[in-house]
Amino acid sequence: MDYHGIPLTELMYGYKNRLHFTVIGDSSNSTQIYEFIDNVFESKKNRTAVQGVFGFIDETFPNCSHEKKFKIFEGQRFWEIKTGQIRIACFWNGKYLICFYGCIKKDNKWPKDEKKNAIKLYKELCR
């Protein structure tokens, strides 16, 4: 499984709407989001929270926007998953939700550098 030649790792499969929740990268081609998710998922609480949002998205697809869980990222063409302090930037490719950047926020908004990095990476991926 890949996105324009970049390997994808599937995190979860949604059984209701058959959505695939993936991250860019794999064990042999590590990326920022691959390592971020690996670290986040070390905590059962965090893993359960992120998977809960994935489940919400699958259950409510295609009307899955939610102010506190999953919404368009600040005027961009990609989305953000929100749970606690965890923020994950992602985009749709058919029935694949491809996560490409993640961070831990310290206040109500994404840190400026993290926001710039996510936007830059999204533009690179969508060339």
Could you please describe the fold and organization of this structure?
The structure is a single chain. The chain is an alpha+beta fold. It has one domain. It contains three helices and seven strands. A seven-stranded mixed beta sheet has the order 1-2-3-7-6-5-4. A hairpin with a 6-residue loop joins strand 4 and strand 5. The longest helix has 17 residues. It is globular, with a radius of gyration of 13 Å. The relative contact order is 0.17.
How many distinct helices? Answer: 3
Strand order across the largest sheet? 1-2-3-7-6-5-4
Radius of gyration: 13 Å
What distance lies between the first and last C-alpha atoms, to the nearest angstrom? Answer: 19 Å
Low-confidence parts, pLDDT < 50 over ≥5 residues?
Answer: none
What's the total count of β strands? 7
Q: Give the count of structural domains.
A: 1
Following the backbone from N to C, one meets helices and strands in this order, namely: EEEHHEEEEH
Beta-strand portion reads 25-35%
Q: Considering DSSP H and I runs of 4 or more, what fraction of the residues is helical?
A: 25-40%
Average pLDDT level:
95
Q: Tell me about the biggest sheet? A: 7 strands, mixed
Structural class given helices, strands, pairing? alpha+beta
Indicate the overall shape.
Answer: globular
Provide a brief overview of the structure:
This protein has helices spanning 32-40, 44-60, 112-125, and strands at residues 2-3, 6-13, 20-24, 70-72, 79-83, 86-93, 96-104. It is of the alpha+beta class and 127 residues long.
